[in-house]
Design a protein that fits this description.
- The protein is of the alpha+beta class.
- Helices cover 35% and strands 21% of the residues.
- The chain contains 3 helices and 4 strands; from the N terminus they run H-H-E-E-E-E-H.
- It has helices spanning 4-12, 15-34, 83-92, and strands at residues 38-43, 51-56, 59-64, 74-78.
- A two-stranded antiparallel ribbon has the order 1-4. A two-stranded antiparallel sheet has the order 2-3.
- The longest helix is centred in the first third of the chain and has 20 residues, at 15-34.
- The model has no long low-confidence stretch (mean pLDDT 92).
Length: 110
């Protein structure tokens, strides 16, 4: 998860800190691939580059970012037997943000 404050912090990080953080996450992603867990992953651009489409009956309106509140910063799609297995993997993950953060885990509807 991210929010506008965290997005600002990320933008102000030094290049060396960003590289170190990305290297740790890349190593973790390689572990996931080698274990056959990861199906897909990617990070998302900051919310200031996004848009939201609001629905109200038949009406549609477009809102430009940045957005407030908790925001999705990226995603993984994993294939595991249980959510408990996913929790075990997430506990091994490096902190994806330069501040205290959390990762939400949810099964895909099928």
């Amino acid at each position: 998860k991210a929010n506008p404050s965290i997005e600002g912090t990320l933008e102000s990080m030094s290049e060396s800190v960003k590289k170190e953080s990305m290297a740790k996450m890349s190593a973790f992603n390689e572990e996931l691939k080698k274990a056959g867990v990861m199906r897909d992953c990617d990070g998302l651009r900051p919310s200031k580059e996004g848009k939201r489409v609001r629905f109200d009956g038949d009406a549609r309106s477009v809102v430009d970012g940045p957005f407030n509140g908790d925001l999705v910063a990226g995603y993984w799609i994993w294939e595991l037997p249980s959510i408990d297995d996913a929790v075990a993997w997430v506990k091994r993950c490096p902190n994806p943000m330069p501040v205290p953060s959390e990762i939400e885990i949810r099964p895909i509807a099928s």
